[in-house]
Amino acid sequence: MNAIEVNGLRKEFKAYSSRSGLSGAFRDLFTRNYKIVPAVNDINFTVKQGEMVGYIGENGAGKSTTIKMLTGILTPTSGSVIVNGMNPHRERERFVQTIGVVFGQRSQLWWDIAVQESFRLLKKVYKVSDADYNEHMDHVIKTLDLEPLLDKPVRKLSLGQRMRCELAAALIHNPPLLFLDEPTIGLDVLVKLKIREFLKEINEKYNTTILLTTHDLTDIEALCERVVMLDEGNIIYDGALKSLKERWGEGKEISFEFLEKAELNHLETLTGDLDIKWELDERKQIFTAVTGDDEEIVSQVIARTVAAYKVRDVKINEPSTEEIIRNIYDKGMLQHG
Amino acid sequence: MDKYIEMIRIRFLMMLAYRTNYYTGILIYSINIGAYYFLWNAIYGGKSEIEGLSAIQMTTYVAVAWMARAFYFNNIDREMATEIKEGKVAVELIRPYNYLGMKTMQGLGEGIFRLFFFSMPGMVIVALIFPIEFSADAATWGLFAISIVLSFLINTQLNLLTGITTFFLYNNTGLIRAKRVLIDLFSGLLLPISFFPGWAQEIMGFLPFQGISYIPSMIFTNGFTGSEAVEGLIIQAAWVLILVIPVQVLWVIAKKQLIIQGG
Lengths: 337, 263
Known about the structure:
The structure holds 2 protein chains of 2 kinds. Chain A is of the alpha/beta class. Chain A has helices spanning 21-30, 63-70, 92-95, 115-125, 130-143, 159-170, 189-206, 217-223, 241-248, 264-270, 295-308, 321-336; strands at 2-17, 33-48, 52-57, 78-83, 99-103, 177-181, 209-213, 226-231, 234-240, 253-258, 276-281, 286-291, 311-317. In chain A, strand 6, helix 7 and strand 7 (209-213) form a beta-alpha-beta unit. Chain B has one domain (2-256). A two-stranded antiparallel ribbon of chain B has the order 1-2. The longest helix of chain B has 31 residues, at 99-129. In chain B, 39% of the residues are buried. The A-B interface holds A 13, 64, 68, 71-75, 92-94, 96-97, 99, 101, 103, 105-108, 110, 112-113, 117, 120-122, 124-127, 153 and B 2-3, 6-7, 10, 13-14, 17-18, 87-88, 90-91, 93-98, 255-256, 258-260, 262-263. Chain B: Keywords: Membrane, Transmembrane, Transmembrane helix. Chain B: InterPro entries: ABC-2_transporter-like.
């Protein structure tokens, strides 16, 4: 069964622009210039029940707009959205009963009252029975270590503490589908790890579908097998994270530090017949060979270099996901020009 | 229904979280009542009655009007404006409840809190200082109770309307302020409507504002009795029903063209 089905989804916004100068400001009083900008441009994708999908893109790529349409907050300009078998916007009140949402930048707890009061209200709002609540939430509270926070007002919590509470609040009704919009923004490593562990656990235990947007790619690496990448409202990649790396992760970098003085052009002539590029960090005297996809070349480069110079240190680096994605965006820009 | 009642409870907790607000509120209301008491005393200046109200009835009118205001008055228009401006309305829309219904309940929670912990103690203080005449008639109290519930509903619907306009105007602080002054003036809080010139009274007869303060206060001071009081309640109830229409229409349009501000 598909948790999310999106077909030809489009959302347009009016972007107003102000005329310049005083006379322009007066004219703006009566008529305003605007152009129609598509924030999400006819996208299609489906998510299966139990999948964990990373939804990534630069700021303003249309991620949040998509999430808001998927959660029934915004009406699409055109296209169809079916989530948990329902139209999110039309059947909003019934639909939101089946999803949980965490907006990293907005709190859904009540600021001035204790966390447990917020939980109690949400329990009533989602009509969760005492038995279900106790069984499920006891576990959540224990795993996220919320016990000492329950009687504190939200405004006195640190960001990490609040985020853990937010996550628990989104899970009170144990929804089959969870939307996380930048859930780890501004959190320290320990809290991030705890949240990831927890998400993995509920995914395994309840087969919860999770759609995650984040700028922190380590989140995606730790959690998601599949990524959907968005650029200027278009999906530019949809598939496994692994094949993304294979397809775009071009080659390896081999860095050498030498005990003796080395010459860049000497190294270049040494490996002249191989398809590589040498770079030199002048300050640290680190020589880096950037190879293509050919696995053979790596050992060739190392063998020839080590034979010619005494080596202090050798490092072989694969490009990180972050570099790959930056790479895609740079090229993606060119394609969409 | 459970969730709406729970919301009233939460509102109580929130009001209790800000105690200073609560105490200064009592003080401000007492000062207002005191000021109007002396003002009206000066205006009466020995005359036994003006426009059918005696000086004591007038004092009672002012005191009751302010105490009833504590119940029907709420800031949900301003709250909605902030929620919409800051994009928090997104969070409200992912919950399985009716946003406007929940806002009304928050207003009611605030109103009930103020009625018991604010109006009643305030009324005792005011009654000790100024000569006020309470009706001993149970029927008057009953009619008054129905009447202030209706004034709460009318005022809340007007607040919802003002709040929803934020969706279209993005910044409606001025409108909210204008609405408040308009209500204080035209509802009969500052001046009983029977004191306005004839033509103004006629116009106000077609507006919902008289149902907010004038009618309940007149019922309480026995300015309206018998059929007049019942007629007042019917006018109020009619406005409650009429105002449902623009609120719902505006809400449907607002949801369609909703833009969540701030990402």
